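User: I'm writing a tutorial on reading structure tokens. Could you give me a worked example: one chain, its sequence, then its tokens, then a sentence or two explaining what the tokens reveal?
Assistant: Sure. Here is the example chain.
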Amino acid sequence: MRKIAYLLIAGLFASGFLASIPGIAAASDRTKVSVSVLPQAYFVERVGGDRVKVQVMIPRGASPAIYEPTPQQLIMLADSKIYVKVGAPTFPFEKKHFNSILKKNRKMIVVNMSDGVEYRNSDPHVWVAPCTVRIAAGNIYHALSEIDPSGKGYYRKNLESFLRDIDELDGDIRTLLAGKKGCSFMVFHPAWGYFADQYGLKQAPVEVGGKAPSASRIKKIVDTAREKGIKIIFVQKGFDVRSAKIIAAEIGGKVMEIDPLEKDWLKNMKDIAETLSNVLKR
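And here are its predicted structure tokens:
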């Protein structure tokens, strides 16, 4: 029975029947899209659905500051029709490697997902706030619709669903962080500036300019943490967090991992807001 079902489905694809249904495409017909980081794959898949196939350049657990694309990844770019950039001028991976990426496929359409975002100085983490991801989703929709006009209605429906989820997330975060405006949270790597700006929080980084803190700076950070009653230092995968552990020991606190590079962006943002709601103190 399974074999018969498989043959029937294969026959429908071969006849073009299933591929003609909006949102359903044979794997070979899907628009191949490359992105830099995992959350972008989530954005593209929410808008593109079954009509896209996404390749992520920076794998889970790798740091965008030091990751080098593999020869296999560069070869795979030859099949991509679109590259969705993070787009922030200071994003280290794209700043270092984008010219070599373009050389592998000069016909590839490049989309800056952050076109229209007001960039924070020296902060490339534009995907950590609902307001900036709303902009990114719209830019991705326009790019997919341009390269695949037959799927425009499908992409529009997916975009509207995604925007509703973003707006619901924004409401949930505001509820979770009610009464926390002006509160400070301490992070090792300053990846949460756009989130902090949207919700009226203050991000206190341990690392500044990609450099570990000096002894005198560690003392100032410890003093700040004690003054504000901070007991948690947030860290992310791929970074040397020894200085964060030293500070945590000094303040009688602990290090907690939160990752701005999780693929399931919607769930990750809600989880982080819940964590902040529990640890922020006025």
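What the tokens reveal: The first strand starts at residue 31 and ends at 35. The chain has two domains: 22-173, 179-279.
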